[in-house]
Specification:
Blueprint (H helix, E strand, L loop, with lengths): L2 H5 L20 E5 L2 E4 L4 E4 L2 H4 L8 H13 L11 H13 L4 E7 L2 H18 L7 E5 L8 H6 L3 H5 L10 E2 L23 H12 L4 E6 L16 H11 L3 E5 L23 E4 L11 E6 H11 L13 H16 L2 H22 L7 E3 L2 E5 L11 H10 L2 E2 L1 E4 L8 E5 L7 H32 L1
Parallel strand pairs: 3-13, 5-6, 5-7, 7-8, 8-9
Antiparallel strand pairs: 1-2, 2-3, 4-10, 9-10, 11-12, 12-15, 14-15
Helix pairs in contact: 3-11, 4-11, 5-10, 8-9, 12-14
The chain binds 4'-deoxy-4'-aminopyridoxal-5'-phosphate (PMP).
Length: 462
């Protein structure tokens, strides 16, 4: 270690491993509202809310003050031995926002941990209900529920799984409804067509694996990161609910990305009129100001745990219910309500959708726009005669133009399904929506300019 290393920031990749070690990223030095500024004074419009967490934008003083006040009062107390007022306050606010019947909250730190907790709770629930064999979780292909080995086993992103195989648990997977613009591809059978009966496939998997072995089914109501804002057919979730009821399967709906207003409802599941047994949340609960996540649990599970296990969910760890994180959550949830954030999502989401639909009609590289509220996306299509561009490369070009989107690749081959998720802070205003779409349009044009100049340069070099 040199003195220089301790005094100057230097590139983080010299000593940390979080990012692609070969790449140089801009140094974020300041952020305000929907903008992040780098060390050279460049502004980036945050069109992805920093991994869809910074729902309230950057620099919200009320949240910063609440965290500071909590840190100076009781920064940390053993969650299993003390209560803090902010624990009850935050849980009450969350229960108030949740669908009826989901009244009890368990706090964790990140989305992956929340889903791990939910899968464990489902097992304990079955055990306490006298169904000890139920342990498998059915997940869906092309889904993401976190990076811990359990959550990765339930998730169906083959790309993220390959370096870590075999998975911890041999969880079965079913197909997830796709957007209409692409042929669905599933790794197990080469792909159903657009008429594919997702529910029949689900039933077949239950029959094959045995309902007596299945503990839970996990899915997102509207798929965020893995498929880029894919909304399922209207009846799909209701039919899933019926199957879960019929076979005593706990329905876990992962709202880590969609929770707290992102899609124009408090929870995305509300679009479909379905009540899950467990909702998991993360990211937006603090607007990204602190690591807080958790699950909201239906009374039908809580009642059994109260009756058979004295109310004890046999799970817990050091930072579950950390008071400073809860203070951030409590202040963020207050901010959502006091500033009518949900209403803003509906208004600005509609405006954004209109602008994107219009852009799409003029841009052959854009597939049909999909999503709800301020969780919108489209596929980056290949255009005959023009070069293929990955969403990651597209996003880097967009950053040069002053906006950062959320790139994704939904299909297993890493080529088809390149998509862009557009998910700005839920507090974004009209003027920034319009600038964001202008930057998108410029980038879509730049792609072809750059690609054609690249082709010319390559030809000249030959
Ligand atoms: N579930 C979903 C739907 C997510 O989008 C994410 C994060 N992208 C996670 C779970 C995992 O959350 P975390 O990264 O906080 O562990």
């Amino acid at each position: 270690m040199s003195t220089a290393a301790t005094t100057s920031p230097g590139p983080a990749r010299d000593h940390v491993f979080h990012r692609n070690l070969l790449k140089k990223y801009p140094l974020a030095v300041r952020a305000a509202g929907v903008y992040i500024f780098d060390g050279d004074g460049n502004a980036y419009l945050d069109a992805s809310s920093g991994a869809v967490a910074a729902n309230l934008g950057h620099g919200v003083q009320e949240i910063v003050d609440a965290m500071a006040a909590q840190a100076s009062q009781v920064a940390f107390a053993h969650t299993l031995r003390f209560e803090t007022p902010v624990l009850a306050q935050t849980a009450r606010r969350i229960a108030h926002l949740s669908p009826d019947g989901l009244e009890t909250v368990y706090f964790a730190s990140g989305g992956s941990e929340a889903n791990e907790a939910a899968m464990k709770l489902a097992r304990q629930f079955h055990l306490d209900s006298g169904r000890p064999g139920k342990h498998l979780v059915i997940g869906r292909w092309q889904s993401y529920h976190g990076n811990t080995l359990g959550a990765l086993s339930a998730g169906g992103d083959v790309g993220r799984r390959t370096s870590f195989s075999p998975m911890l648990a041999p969880y079965p997977h079913v197909s997830a409804p796709q957007n209409e613009s692409l042929q669905p591809v599933c790794p197990h059978d080469g792909g159903p067509d657009e008429q594919f009966d997702y529910i029949a496939e689900f039933e077949q998997v239950i029959a094959r694996v045995g309902a007596e072995n299945i503990s839970a089914f996990i899915c997102e109501a509207i798929v965020g990161s893995q498929q880029g804002a894919v909304v399922p057919p209207t009846k799909y979730l209701g039919q899933v609910r019926e199957l879960c009821d019929r076979f005593d399967i706990v329905l876990i709906v992962d709202e880590v990305m969609t929770g707290f207003g992102r899609t124009g409802k408090n929870f995305a599941v509300e679009h479909f009129g379905v009540t899950p047994d467990i909702i998991t949340f993360g990211k937006g609960v603090t607007g990204g100001y602190a690591p807080l996540s958790g699950m909201i649990v239906h009374d039908r599970i809580v009642d059994i745990i109260r009756e058979r296990s004295d109310g004890v969910f046999r799970h817990g760890y050091t930072y579950s219910g950390h008071p400073v994180c809860l203070a951030a959550g409590n202040a963020a949830l207050t901010y959502y309500t006091d500033n009518a954030v949900l209403e803003n999502v509906v208004t600005q989401g509609r405006h954004l959708r209109g602008l994107l639909d219009d852009l799409q009609s003029r841009q052959p590289r854009m597939g049909p726009v999909r999503g709800r509220g301020l969780l919108l996306g489209f596929d980056l299509l290949d255009v005959p005669g023009r070069r293929h561009i990955t969403s990651e490369a597209f996003n880097e070009m967009a950053m040069q133009n002053g906006a950062i989107f959320y790139p994704g690749k939904g299909r297993i081959d890493g080529i088809r399904g390149q998509h862009l998720l557009i998910a700005p802070p839920l507090t974004i205003q009209r003027v920034d929506i319009e600038l964001m779409v202008d930057i998108l349009e410029k980038t879509l044009t730049d792609v072809d300019v750059e690609v054609s100049s690249q082709i010319i340069n390559e030809r000249n070099a030959q």
